[in-house]
Structure of Nitric oxide reductase:
Amino acid sequence: MGPYKKHWFTLIGLCIVMFSLLGYLGADIYRAAPPIPAQVVTAQGHKLFGQDDILDGQTAWQSVGGMQLGSIWGHGAYQAPDWTADWLHRELSAWLEMAAQERHHKPYGDLDVGAQAALRAELQAEYRGNRMGADDTLTVSERRAQAMAQTAAYYDQLFSDAPALRGSRESFAMKENTLPSAERRAQMTKFFFWTAWAAATERPNSKVTYTNNWPHEPLIGNVPSSENVVWSIASVVILLAGVGFLVWGWSFLRHQDDEDMAAPAQDPLTRFALTPSQRALGKYLLLVAGLFIFQVMLGGFTAHYTVEGQEFYGIDVSQWFPYSLTRTWHIQSALFWIATGFLALGLFLAPVINGGKDPKFQKLGVDVLFWALVFVCVGSFVGNYLAIAQIMPPEWNFWLGHQGYEFVDLGRFWQTLKWVGMLLWLVLMLRGVLPALLARNGEDKNLLALLTCSCGAIGLFYGAGLFYGERTSLTIMEYWRWWVVHLWVEGFFEVFATTGLAFVFSSMGLVSRRMATTASLASASLFLLGGIPGTFHHLYFAGTTTPVMAVGAAFSALEVVPLIVLGHEAWENWRLQRRAPWMQQVKWPLMCFVAVAFWNMLGAGVFGFMINPPISLYYVQGLNTTPLHAHAALFGVYGFLALGFTLMVLRYVRPQLVFSEGLMKTAFWCLNGGLVLMIATSLLPIGILQFHASVSEGLWWARSEAFMQQPLLETLRWVRTFGDVVFIVGAVAMAWQVVSGVRGSSAASHPSATVIPAK
């Protein structure tokens, strides 16, 4: 550890404490998850359904795309309703209408204010009261049972091809006969009921529901809890305190003696002859380009479904490629190409770290990993198609088809193979890193040790997504899912990116090894301090308790703190291109890293904190404010990182390549400009309008057909086309540069691109 002992002890100590907190509250999540009734009966003892029916309904929901078609508890897609909020409001409205007819013989809307208030008070008492018995039997009134049946009949028609609801299916971007089996439709309605029951029923000995009073539903008094308000204010105070301490630390603790090093006359990374495994990385870059174009085109196609519903400019394509399928492929292909870009950088660095030579059979391992990635990608996409088309047998769906959960949609078999691929990548990395790490040559190995740890975390922590099953409680599944989506992606990939860049720049002789090591250790500590327990900010309303909300609110505020100084990082990356003439060869990778810093600040920082405080997320969870943050953070940060890594690897595996200024300017500025247009002209204004509707009426209204099909919102969704087109132009230019570069068609002689053979 040497001079970095305090940095290492800080990082290790933080990881121990934060993971202990994550595990301790994880055990609480298991204990406090909303119960699934053994049976649901009426007050007269008539059995309606049981636990197996609810769980069978969960698997039926998974098979139609799950979170890619509407959302549950606010998590999922945004065109169709949130099924929890929608079911709850429909059932409550049906109950009120029945009660009004029974008591007053007239519709509820025709009653005077006093009579309406009396019925709402009775409604609130019945729905918020916890009528789960000691034997896990849930008892409902006869009137509620009738309201449940009426609501279920609506969903049975909606997910079939009933002509009466064809217009609603178009509005929700649902294909005709989404779930052909009447038996499975009936089971799915029981699952929807259970999610709504958990959202309306108070926990024992508590004044809040199992979902912390989410969603906003005035009919039964679902409003933000006092804990919600307290911890929202606390999160803002913690953010301000964190920013203040960061500014003080930045001002007084940073070393003043880290002056610019004299850049070497020639790029040190070109002093090694390319190894066979490095030459084999060209196909990885082609895979990045191909999946990137596929994902971007699918994004435009899927966005168009929000306008026409079942058609693409008048052509009915939903029966073959419905919204739920194209959105699944859009998200999964993004994860595949971004991960491939990161893996390619690691595989390029492994021989560099190993003294410019491949370990034995390294190229074979690189080739096997590539074809394994292709196999998993194609196999999972085919499985998604067969599941959503309802061709795959139901019992195979979870393993080979569609898990139904956003970002981990691929079947469990393909997910397992993907993890095996990550472990293979880790082995390939360690074969190059460990000999250098263990060599007794007196060199400073601390940065290399941190890079090794980040590689290990990437390889191992994806396995957290295997800790839930097909019939696992939704609350427990969400806990493990966010280990993958938040902790694995936003935590450990961030540390790997920071450390990998620091290693590359120090190897180039642009920054000192001491400065790179200190900065990387400090950054890792800051990222993981907020990032590990910050996972809980996704779980405020997923059936968890107040401590989860408190920890999530406090530490997710700290996640934003290190993003404040990213303007300095962007400036430093910008300056690097002027340090030496040969740095012009990596100008465009550096420009991508500048974009990463900007979008980290705006997309992850500003837009992220905008939805992080519990009081904010209470109203906006499941609205277009979420994809606003997701697009700006996932592509703006990790997408540009992966593209930057791809261009950097391309520059070295094709040493004679000179990037086309025309192509790269088009790619860089159109990608950034298109993303800005998507946000400013569509996602943000729609999100703001939905936010107002959610606060004033409830989430059900903000996601309803009547609200979403207003002319203004339809126009805003059409306007997004301009941003999509600009973005697509940038994506095509970027992919063209990568493909032509790998094939050598844009190579040109350049004095700084000469490779000096290894001695």
